[in-house]
Specification:
The complex is a heteropentamer of chains A (about 350), B (about 290), C (about 240), D (about 250) and E (about 290). Chain A has a seven-stranded mixed beta sheet with strand order 7-6-8-9-10-14-15, with helices on both faces. Chain A has a five-stranded parallel beta sheet with strand order 2-1-3-4-5, with helices on both faces. A three-stranded antiparallel beta sheet of chain A has the order 11-12-13, covered by helices on one side. By secondary structure, chain A is α/β, with parallel strands linked by helices. In chain A, helix 5 links the parallel strand 6 and strand 7. Chain A has eleven helices and 15 strands. Chain B is an all-alpha fold and about 290 residues long. A six-stranded mixed beta sheet of chain C has the order 6-7-8-3-9-10, with helices on both faces. In chain C, strands 2-1-4-5 form a four-stranded antiparallel beta sheet, covered by helices on one side. In chain C, helix 3 runs parallel beside helix 6 and helix 4 packs antiparallel against helix 6. The longest helix of chain C is centred in the last third of the chain and has 16 residues. Chain E is mostly helical. Chains in contact: A-B, A-E, B-C, B-D, B-E, C-D, D-E. At the B-E interface, helix 3, helix 4, helix 9 and helix 11 of B face helix 4, helix 9 and helix 11 of E. Bound molecules: adenosine-5'-triphosphate (2 copies) and magnesium ion (MG) (2 copies). One adenosine-5'-triphosphate sits at the interface of chains D and C.
Chain lengths: ~350, ~290, ~240, ~250, ~290
Amino acid sequence: ADVKLGLAAALTGPAAKYGVAIKNGFTLAADEVNAAGGVNGNKLQLIIEDEQGKKEEAINVFKKLIFKDKALLVFGPTLSNSAFAADPIANAAKVVAFGTSNTADGITAMGPFTFRNSVMEADVLPVTTRAAVKHFGIKKVAIIYGNDDAFTKSGYDVFKGTLADQKIPVTTTEAYAKGDVDFKAQLTKIKASNPDAIVCSCLTEEAANIILQTRALGMKQPFIGGNGLNSPKLFDIAKGAGDDTIMGSPWSPENLTPANKAFIAAYKAKFGSDPDQFAAQAYDALHVVADALKKIKLSGAIDKDRIALQQALPSVTIEGATGKFAFRKAPAVTGKEVGYDAQQEAIVNIAKGGKFILLK
Amino acid sequence: MLEQQLINALSLGSVYALFALGFTLVFGVLGVINLSHGAIFMLGSYAALLLIEHFALPLWLAMLAAMLASGLIGLAVDYLVLRPLRARNAPHLAPMIATIGVATILTSLAQGLFGAENKRFPVGTIPEESYNWGNLHVTAVQIGIVVISFILMLVLLAVMRRTQLGRALRAIAESPKAAYLLGINVEGLFYLTSFAAAALGGAAGVLVGLSFNAITPFMGQPMLHKGIAVIILGGMGDIRGAMIAGLFLGFAEVLTVAYISSDFRDAVGFGLLFLILLVKPSGMFGKVLERKA
Amino acid sequence: MTATANSNPATILQVRDLAVSYGHIEAVKGIELDLKQGEITALVGANGAGKSTTLLAISGLLKPQRGQVLLGQQDLTRLAPHKIVQSGVVQVAEGRATLTTLSVAENLALGAYTRQDKENIAKDLDWVYSLFPVLRRRKDGLAGNLSGGEQQMLAIGRALMAKPRVLLLDEPSMGLAPLLVQEIFRIVEEINRTGLTILLVEQNVRQALRIAQHGYVLENGKIVLADSGSNLLNNPKVLEAYLGG
Amino acid sequence: MLQLKNISKNFGGLQVLQDVNFNVPQGGIFGLIGPNGAGKTTVFNLITGLLRASGGAIEFDGQDIGKVAAHKITERGIARTFQNIRVFKEMTLLENVVVGMHDHMDYSFGSVLLNLGGYRRIEAQARERALELLSWLRLDHKAHMLADSLSYGEQRKLEFARALATKPKLLLLDEPVAGMNPAEKTELMEEILNIKQRGFSIFMIEHDMRFVMGLCDRIAVLNFGRIIAEGSPDEIKNNQEVIEAYLGKEDSE
Amino acid sequence: MDWWDGFWSTYNTVIFSLGVNAMLALSIYVTLSCGLLSLANAAFMGIGAYAASLISMQTGLPFPVALAVGGALPALVALIIGIPTLRLSGVYLAMATLGFGEVVRVVVLNMDITGGPLGLNGIPLKTEWWHIVLLLALTLYILARMRRSKIGRAFEAIKEDEVAARLMGVNVAGYKLLAFVIGAAIAGVAGGLNAHYTFTIGPGNYAFENAVEILTMAVFGGTGSLVGPTLGGMILTLLPEALRDFNSYRAVVNGLILVLVILYLPKGIWDPRRIRHWLKTFSQRKPQAGGSN
Ligand SMILES: Nc1ncnc2c1ncn2[C@@H]1O[C@H](COP(=O)(O)OP(=O)(O)OP(=O)(O)O)[C@@H](O)[C@H]1O
Ligand SMILES: Nc1ncnc2c1ncn2[C@@H]1O[C@H](COP(=O)(O)OP(=O)(O)OP(=O)(O)O)[C@@H](O)[C@H]1O
Ligand SMILES: [Mg+2]
Ligand SMILES: [Mg+2]
């Protein structure tokens, strides 16, 4: 019989740029698994629903996938905010909610059925910062971040902590809001504070624009960023101006492991464009689940099978597009059972000639 | 740093003013807050982008064509949506909400057609390097925006103040019925206004697309918010008011970043709007012509 | 009133079987009117009889249910409102439709909006200013600052700027002080003497019929009486119903 | 009962009223006439609290009402009609009149919520009274129609009924017969006399001389913001200054 | 019964939202019925949601207390800002209240107790279906009673002609404030209910778009009676669910429906006169398709 796996992704609305990549990653992986005969003879069937990046929609979609479609597990939702709304539903129904793009703190504290393979910024940014400081000999930095977005704000919080830990003074901290396109006022202020580098907790499109405007103001500082910058779109917009940007992420197109090379080639063949990190993590997530499914025997009683899957997942380890992957139990919270975070090495990249290469 | 911030403010303010020009024109003549203006602005940007990417048109030509295209969209919106509402004398809320529907439609169509990602104009569409005087940096687009928005405003003002057409538009703004009885082709001028306003919106879209490299289906929304603040601050339908209020908002935002905190930048527009309305209930430049009894 | 020599001038505007409705309410129920070249024709009737409705339909602002308005051979009901003005039928609407946010001079300039003979406009402006000297004195002020009577004069002056062949006046004396009422009627007569055809709607029945060559009485959307002005003024029915006995 | 003492009013630089003094006596009909723009409506707006005087005092029944809020002035017993009709068009005639009784409907929010007897009784009484007022003006047969469907003249009468519903001691009428034909004016004249007979004092602005002279006991004449004459109709009719400023040469209308 | 269980667990959030959105639409209906176009209801909803959630999360107080505070706090804020704001009329009031909403959003964004942009997560699930039914019914009952009293008539009179209402002895400022406060309280309670079944709230949930959405629900349903907003809130909640099959063009269809309703049903979906008219034409000529106009 088919194994039904639900996917709740933001396919329309401003978050669609991630949601669509995520959907692509999943369909690619599912097709691969099915082409190889499925799991224990069962085909994987993806049921994809649009949650529009809105919390109410995420709840509705989760409920539909869990109670109506009887999915064995649900992937998604795309944004951390939506995950805070939807994951409690899954935990209450004892169904695994598997996030591939939720990096915010506290996601996996929601319950034992919450899993994610998205690496938390807290794991990545300290490594990135240390590498950047060493590479450029940085003494002081300025920060710019989006202050009305959960992702960029938590990235900022981590950066702030990291910089304090590593005793790097911050010359000025500037914020912007979603939809802003003109950052010159903030950048002029940063320029006056004369930092050695600019730390940017931003999403790709804003980062690209920020970089371009920085150069237009005659500033030459390199940028340091996290996950949000890890996209070829950065260079579609910023072109060469993005060079010397240092970015840490679990996935890089330059990471030439066989698994990654195969993924990139297959993705290009299927969708005609370069994959990004969101696609890669989605791709890996499906393989993680397929691996877990191999270890269990489906009884056909959905409730039991769901719990069996939850118990099989934590021990899965794979060598995927994002490299070596394993789960680790989320930090404990009193009085509550917790879920599982990703245990993965961060890869530090530097932009050269309009793309990210590994920083040696 | 102050000099650079003043330049930043001037160019940002001009962007707001440019967007608000068309917005306030429709508001002034048709008495409608056309909430699809942001979407039309966005489509103008895409139109020029397509023409340059696929047909390699020179920028000025692409810009004119984009203005034409967005003007036609504005005309279609007027014909299909606003005209029937006028015909039955619908209260103000109706066109406002109908244009929300239009904006939704246009935005999601754009997303279907062009995707959700950011686009930018090809490198070299416009000189990208900045002109430097010592520590001051100004780009060609910045200069372009300031100059173009001032020219457009002056032209629009001259038309409204000094020509028979402008008088006719002001007559319509005050009383369509009186305008009809003067032999003014009121419907025709409604269409013309919607067309012109949308074309101005399209032009703003192209210039914003050029200067910020962030063309997305959603780019109209934040601009619309600012635009609303600007046209209300400037007084209903007041072209000069919109221009001054646009600049004012630009300066307010930039100076907030420079001297207070960037955390509050986006609250400045509406915060000021709120405060100013409390002190002066008809906006900074609005005049009230209401008799009591 | 003396019935003067040219006793049989040509008809310039004809209303044939005109009916106008607001939704389900029929306000004008098939009326006939003839306006003779160069004459004043009065249309009188109680509140809500349908007078303003008739005028609005002639000007094309209301779509008639049926019937025609003929200016010479031309059927006005087929024309857009601005074309009707262009063809020479101009209305001064009820309630002083002055444009209060424009200056007096701008109001007058807009009066000539449809005119093709731009060279004569200045001359006509002088004429209007000589009819209403107060307008010349206030020409740069906002029309909204004029008093009620002055606004009424402006509205009439503005209509004259269109160089109409037929002038429709809807209650020009409403709300005006006695002195001004006399002044307005004097002006209407004066304009008429230049050869302009006028359709005058008035509540001020006595004065209206006194200066009008012809009159119609409208009741509940129907014409109930049509006669010369002076005959109507002495008609016992009119005396009773409209002049308060 | 109403006294204006040295009232002046300016809008920005425009001096609209200057040292206006007059008394409106109890029980009769007092008229205020004057050219367009003389400031008559402004006087009403000052009395009813819609505008504040720039100088001077207004006393009603011996109390200063110059700074009292408009709705409180209504409570004290002054009601008015408007020059350009302001009926509530989307409400029925009956509802229009019941709104006028706002101040006289004393029931608590609680009795509304619980639909208690007190609330129901007061509502029923109000409706009854409203019908009665409408019948004074011969509008009762249209009580349940929307005010919008009334003709101009009927809307003016509805305004009367609504004003009467506030139980005024003094009724201010701003050009009550504007836009009516002579026959209708005659009819309305009778109705106003009726209302006076019922014990209301009336203060009216009107341009129709037959109407004013026929109804008023006393008349004041306002010209360019100043009172230029006050007296009985006959005195006013023959006052040279009034003829020049306002009446014009003898005319029957 | 199995079928029911499955249906209920799949759609109970949607069903909850039906009631909550009906309450929100009613909250703006109250102000509209008094002639006030206030767009602050999203902000009031947010204040209520935050207040109620914080009480649930940080104190051991029972849910009814949390909801009560969620209604009372926005009412208090409305009382304070209403006094200066309600002097404004028409679009100016709309924009000032929109500005207020934006200020609230930014304040919430920059506060620690509210979790800034991350919002509050892990709000306990406390809302049950009968809470919503009860509160919606209570809202409807109170509003219906008010409509039939001098309060409702005062609201209506103010909406039609403020000056005339004032001279009928209506304390215009007072009643406007009352409407504003009642609207705020209803929106706040709705916000509290909503927070306790969506587990998370953030400043983005109560922004410009949400304000406009609430208004749209009311106007879509029709603001002539209580039924209209209730229906409007419910239909616009269901619409996206019903349109799920249109996939990426769902928003287009959504927008189109909005435009069509505004164009062809001027008084909203619920227009008793039109419905009666339809029923009549239907029963009269049976086989002929298409109603008139
Ligand atoms: N916009 C409208 N909607 C519905 N009915 C209307 C409208 N305008 C006028 N009516 C009705 O049509 C009828 C004729 O009105 P009209 O204004 O033509 O009368 P009139 O003779 O000009 O009266 P008046 O002397 O009061 O100006 C009246 O019964 C009036 O109530
Ligand atoms: N709110 C206002 N703002 C500015 N000027 C005003 C205002 N109200 C009235 N005026 C001016 O004050 C003067 C007197 O106006 P008012 O309405 O009192 O005249 P009136 O005597 O009632 O005239 P009418 O007989 O035409 O009704 C006019 O010149 C008018 O333009
Ligand atoms: Mg009329
Ligand atoms: Mg007056």
